[in-house]
Amino acid sequence: MVMQRAGNEIRRGAIEMTVAMLISGTIGWLVVASGQSPENVVFVRCLLGAPTLALVCFGLGLVRRDTVSWRVLAWAAAGGAAIVANWVLLFAAYSRASISMATVAYNTQPFMLVVLGIVVFRERITASTAAWLGVAFVGLMLVVKVEPAVLAVPGQYLKGIGYALAAAFLYAVSSIITKRLKGTPPQLIALIQVTLGVFLLAPFVKLHALPTTFMPWADLGAIGVVHTGLVYILLYGAIQKLPTAMTAALSFIYPVVAIVCDRFAFGQTLAWVQLAGAALILLAAAGVNFGWRIGPQRRTAAAKAAYGAGERD
After folding, report:
1. Per-domain residue ranges for the chain?
2. 79 contacts 189 by C-beta, under 8 angstroms
3. What Cα–Cα distance (Å) separates residue 276 from each residue in 57, 262, 269?
4. Cα distance between residue 231 and residue 2, in whole Å
5. Contacts of residue 155, Cβ cutoff 8 Å, sequence gap at least 6
6. CA atoms of 240 and 12, how far apart (whole Å)
7. Quick one: pLDDT band at residue 303, thresholds 50, 70, 90?
8. What residues contact 109, with CB distance under 8 A and at least 6 apart?
9. Most Cβ neighbours (<10 Å): which of 107, 150, 211, 296?
């Protein structure tokens, strides 16, 4: 009976994770389709996501004196600043490097987390992790080295890749900060982050440029309510139910869906060099997430820390 209950919980978690990743993979399509600036998109995302997450937190009884302290607020705010800046940079990358390539470059975040783990927590890196870092670097060089004819936006491609890499770094910073909030409900952390995002981005919002027709508002509404509120609920619910390896495996649905959306929604055709580089980056990310060994060795704390670093926007 216990094993059956555990099996049912894992199946439910797998469904939740799969749905969360399928939805997450479409966010680039909605961002581009909305026609809004990255600052406007993130502001509306936070503005609509905050009440959605507030309903969840109050409904689950998470807003209590013992869960919301000044320490929690301070660290969550620091992580929130990083995650909000991460969203702005990633969304800015979509229109410059294409959704596909921005998403692939963004998937270097597990390696950023490994490096930060070495710097912040003095963790050791295994030979296998170092080798996967090398594979990812080669892949990134292939992604960056493309001919002008295949650029998504001439003169903007490298800037877009740079934005995506900066977004990945900020996501890793946010993950490091979140580690200091162990025991705090993740839904509550997310609520603090998106609430902070409203105030951080308010001075930069171009109110005159906000949509005046239904469809762009529908795109923004989906990003705020579905991709922020619903996805957070599904994602955190899945993480609590699934083994880390399965969580990491299912997270790779996200970049695949993003690439498919880019192809069919915008007709973005990738050069073979880009495809080869993308494949190497995703292979290396899988190697780090799953702890694949290159040669006989023992796994260290750094590898284990990177093992669960595959979560997405």
Report:
1. 2-124+149-243+253-268
2. yes
3. 43, 17, 13
4. 29
5. none
6. 11
7. very low
8. 168, 169, 171, 172, 309
9. 107
Q: Are 107 and 313 a contacting pair, CB within 8 Å?
A: no
Alpha helix segments (H runs only) across the chain: 2-24, 27-34, 38-59, 70-97, 99-106, 109-121, 127-144, 157-179, 186-201, 214-221, 231-241, 244-251, 253-266, 272-290, 301-307
- Both tokens of 167, joined, read 């977004």
Among 39, 60, 5, which residue's Cα sits nearest to residue 206?
A: 39
268/73 Cα distance (integer angstroms): 42
For tokens 């295949």, what's the residue?
150
- Residue pair 261/28 in contact (Cβ under 8 Å)? The answer is yes
Residue of 251 and 161 predicted with greater confidence: 161
Question: In the structure encoding, which two tokens stand for residue 73, read together?
Answer: 């607020």
Q: How many angstroms separate the CA atoms of 83 and 105, rounded?
A: 17
